[in-house]
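Hi again,

Forgot to attach this to my earlier email, sorry! This is the prediction with 2-keto-D-gluconic acid bound. I've pasted everything inline since the attachment limit keeps bouncing my files.
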Amino acid sequence: MIKPSVLVTRRWPAAVEAQLAETYNATFNSADVPLAACEMRDAMKRFDAVLPTVTDKLGADVFEVTKPQAKIIGNYGVGYSHIDEASARDLGLTVTNTPDVLSECTADIAMTLMLMVARRAGEGEREVRDGRWTGWRPTHLVGTKVSGKTLGIIGFGRIGQEMAKRAHLGFGMKIVVQNRSQVASEVLDTYGAIQVDTVEELLPQCDFVSLHCPGGAANRHLMNSARLDLMKQDAFLINTARGEVIDEHALIQALMFGTIGGAALDVFDGEPRIAPDLVQCDNLVMLPHLGSATREAREAMGFRVLDNLEDFFSGRNPRDRVI
Ligand code: 8YV
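Structure tokens for the complex follow:
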């Protein structure tokens, strides 16, 4: 039997690449440089499966192919707002993602960010490294207590729930959630959470707000200046979802004028480009999209793509089909 051809657009963990090479006629991107749109379009014509990541923009232009060879896009990652859904549907492509296997690690990074910004860990680290630390004093880098506070979670899917588990069971936090559909009461009860209908209702109640909703057009600038104004003046905003969910210009204003306490971001609009003014904000923690960056999660994500490919090429509906 001829092995299907697959294009892997970035370097993946070695164990997964080895399995891909054994099972498929696999082409790897040994330079690990993101493909240009024209190369991606070319890939749609030449490979049975294309395996992209968040760094590949699969906009409508990439799908302007009359007879694509590609039948499946096996995305490495749970979020897929970088793939133009309408065009993929028009071409009859199957698109899969990698949920579950990164939920715990992404929630761990959201907790890391929440603790870092509240306890001023980024500022402290910069101070120590710069040789500016003059010693202990009662008024030095005094932050905000996290334990027992109220955490608002926007988007209560798998990652949002892992965040609630850590915050509620580990830190005794009260949990308020906003989600586009009603969450089952037994799920809410597990985390002592209450659900509110709107983001407007959630924001004024919370000491911390963590974003766990999908990106894409529907949630672009969900946190805009009007909503940032609804946050408490000493509240913190955490984003491990997608950069576009926050209007960064409005966030910069809020941070600079101190209308919120601070923010912590793992994702950025137009990343890896960072808006220069963000860098000026001391009450901001920034990480370079590390949500799923553990050996365990990254391998599991790769093997989950392999599971989806196996289903697809055996004529079954892939378990993580999203389109
Ligand atoms: C991934 C993520 O590493 O899975 C996601 O949606 O945001 C990341 O944690 C990245 O998307 C890889 O494609």
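The longest helix spans residues 295-313. The chain has two domains: 5-99+295-313, 103-286.

That should be everything now.

G.
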